[in-house]
Amino acid sequence: MKNTPSPHNLHSNRRKPISNFQYEDANNNKPKHQRFAALKAAVKKVAGVFKILLFGQREAIPKGAAVIDTRTNTRISGISSSTDISTWSDTKSSSKFKLSQSNNSSSALSGVIETKNFSYEEIFKATEKFSPANKIGEGAFGTVYKGRLGDGSLVAVKRAKKATYDKLIALEFKNEILTLSMIEHLNLVRLYGYLEHGDERIIVVEYVGNGTLREHLDGTLGNGLEAGERLDIAIDVAHAITYLHMYTDPPIIHRDIKSLNILITEKFRAKVADFGFARLSADPNATHISTQIKGTAGYLDPEYLKTYQLTEKSDVYSFGVLLVELMTGRRPIEPQKPANERLTTRWAMQMLKRGDAILVMDPKLRRNPASTMALEKILMLAKQCLAPLRQSRPSMQKCAEILWGIRKDFREKALSASSTPHYSANFPVRDAKKTRQTSFGIEDGDSYKFISA
Ligand SMILES: Nc1ncnc2c1ncn2[C@@H]1O[C@H](COP(=O)(O)OP(=O)(O)OP(=O)(O)O)[C@@H](O)[C@H]1O
């Protein structure tokens, strides 16, 4: 085994929760000037943590980092002048492949998180010989297993299909690894390592243990998501995509934002997964002309479909579809519904225009002034994201800001309503059925409290 960091080591530099900042109490007995210095340091620290929370843990990846695109004939596409598949050293004989820089081959690829080259034995052991009992999912890429590494950490092991292993899968595999290796953010699934060995292609990522957003919306998992939780999930996803668009260099376009690719933590927060289709753009100002379209039906930006030009605003469009999913609980395309309801976004937008937004609200959501207000405002944001012209769509950062405002109003309304006698708000409450604290939807550590303050 190589002397590379374990997943535990990789996390060793993780921030401390803000609740650890006990500066006021701890410094009460100190002289005034010391208290002031401590206060100043703490304020600086909090500001730093705020930046990290909002924008992820990494500084921007330096220019010149490897650029990759996928070229396929079926699912993936996107050939552009700025992409360069040759940045991969794809040696079949090697049990692993290397990352190299497109512009600067002299130095290691900085801005790329350290990952581990797992051995086949390690993975075999971690998944108990790829036991069907450990299978947690299946996608176009292959099968996903839950695994436990030697140090006890839980991981998700994505094993490419062998039967259909071809250039397409190879490109998707490399694309996902390269993209994941450049990002580190609380709301993005983290890469631990990979393995390329013979005809095996395996990606090892952080295990996120509470299913996909789609499963929660369908009710096949959990007890249903409340309005506050849906709002938190929307904000988490907005943060993740903002980070991809604005705080990585080159910017990353995810290209497959959908409820199936949003993983939910035990504390009902969201992590964006599945970077098989992601596009790294070397020049954010360049117009990328794809020869083929990639993405998922129902989420695809109509302007991208029409012009083959891919920009960050295609993710914004898909995010708009996701917002409608979150509010209605429905999938983007519902073939079983009456004709006027089959395209969920069109139906929802028509109802919003008519002033009947309440009619599209997920029947699983409790109706009260706070949730109906949030519904209307979120649908109004979705409408902007779904604008036919990409210039009219907001940036992901703007989406996040609007959502913060909605969450603030939602909380205030819910709090004032809950203090009214005989009023049964769904928020904040201790939900006995779910035995989870839904107060403010803040469950993933105190850090979230700070962000929303
Ligand atoms: N990190 C993870 N933690 C827990 N479960 C996961 C994880 N990654 C994937 N899964 C599960 O496996 C399923 C398939 O994963 P994923 O969508 O990444 O595979 P894929 O082959 O890349 O899919 P796609 O068809 O979208 O390309 C997910 O829907 C989810 O249920």
TrEMBL record:
The keyword Nucleotide-binding applies. GO terms for biological process: response to abscisic acid; response to cold; response to hydrogen peroxide; response to salt stress. It holds the Pfam family Pkinase. Residues 130-411 form the Protein kinase domain. Keywords: ATP-binding, Kinase, Nucleotide-binding, Serine/threonine-protein kinase, Transferase. The keyword Transcription does not apply. Residues 1-10, 19-28 have a biased composition (Polar residues). It catalyses: L-threonyl-[protein] + ATP = O-phospho-L-threonyl-[protein] + ADP + H(+); L-seryl-[protein] + ATP = O-phospho-L-seryl-[protein] + ADP + H(+). Residues 1-28 are annotated as: Disordered. GO terms for molecular function: ATP binding; calcium/calmodulin-dependent protein kinase activity; calmodulin binding. Its EC number is 2.7.11.1. Belongs to the protein kinase superfamily. This is non-specific serine/threonine protein kinase. It comes from Prunus persica (Peach).
